[in-house]
Specification:
By secondary structure, this protein is an alpha/beta fold. Helix content is 30%, strand content 22%. The longest helix is centred in the first third of the chain and has 17 residues.
Length: 383
Amino acid sequence: MPLSVVDDAAFMGRALELAGAGRLSTRPNPSVGCVIVRDGRILGEGYSAPAGGPHAEVRALAAAEEPVEGATVYVTLEPCSHFGRTPPCADALIRAAPSRVVVATRDPHPQVAGGGIERLRAAGIEVDVGLCEAEARAINPGFMFRHERGRPLLRLKLAASLDGRSAMASGESQWITGAEARRDVQRLRARSCAIVTGSGTVLADDPRLTVRQDELPELSAFDANFLEGHPPLRVVLDRSLRTPAKARLLDTAGVLICASETAPTQRRQALQAAGAECLSLPSAGTGAGSGLDLLALLHLLVERDCNEVLFECGPRLAASVLEAGLVDELWLYQAPMLLGARARPMADLAIDRLAQGLRFECRDVSRMGVDLRLILAPASGGA
C-alpha cells in the first residue's frame, strides 16, 4: 500500500524527533534520525552515535527485525557517500534494498554534497528530497553553516537590564538575570563546540565557563557522560597574556589562550605550565576589544571542527564582534530592572549617528522565569 503525504510527514517527524535526541553528543558530526517503514509499520529506527560510531541509517538497519527490502527509509540528512571514520551509509542502504528513501535535506559536506543521493538513484532506489527541510536544518545549524559558509555559526550571548546595562560601574553583575535564564545559558553552552571570552572578563569575574550539569536536570545520563568527556573548548582572547596562571578556568583541561605574537614569553610559559594551550593570532589592526583578528580565530576554530561558537564576554569584545559583522545570532537575556546611566553598557559600540545603529530581526521571544530571552539575527535589509 503506498504511503500518503500525511504518512510521509508523520514518519519524517519521528526521524526529526530522533535526530533531536542526539544533538548534544554528535559534534562535530551532525545529529541525524532515521526511520524505516513498510505498510505503515516501523521496522527500525535510530539516530547518530557520537563521532566515530555508527550513523543513524546503520543503527536503524541494525534495529530492524526483518529484511527492509522494498521498504521506505526516512532520514533527516542525505546519507553519506564517502569513507570517513565509518563506511558510506549510502552503500549500506543499497545493500538493504529499500524501494524509496525520503531525505529531508542535502548534506553540504564537500565529500557528500549530493553524492549520496546520486548513488542511491544510480542503484535504482527512488529518492525524494526536501520534506521538512527547514526543520532538519534547524537541528544542525552550525554543521550546515560551517560547510556552507566556511566558518562556525557565531552566537553572542548578552545579559542586560531594560536600559541595556550589563554591570554596575564597580563591575558588580551577579546576578542581573534570574535562575531560569542562567540555566538556559547552560543549555546554550552544552550545544556549543567552543566558548569564547576576553581577558577582561577573566580578570573581572574569574569564570570557569564550564557546563554546570547540576543546573540541567533534564540531561540524559548519556548526554551528561558525553559532556563530561567532551566539554566545549574554552577560548580566551588575551593579547598580552594577562590571564593569571591561577585562574579558575585552568582548573580543568581544555583551555586555549590566544595572544599576539609579541606577548611576553615568560607569561606564555607560565600559562602552558598551568595547562593552557597558547597560540598566536594576528592583530586586528583597528577597533576595540581584544585587538586580535576575530576572523582568524574563526578560521582556527574551523580547523578544529567547531560548528557552533558562543561568545560570552564583556562590552569591549562584544562590540568588536558586532562591529566586525560576525554575529549570526544575538541571544539577549533581559531582566526587568533599570540600572541607570552610571552602569556599564552591554556593548561598548562607538556609534554617533542613528544611521550607524546595528539593526536586528527578532526570531524568538521567550519567558525565562522573570526575564525575557530574545534571539535576534542581523537585519537582512540593513537600516
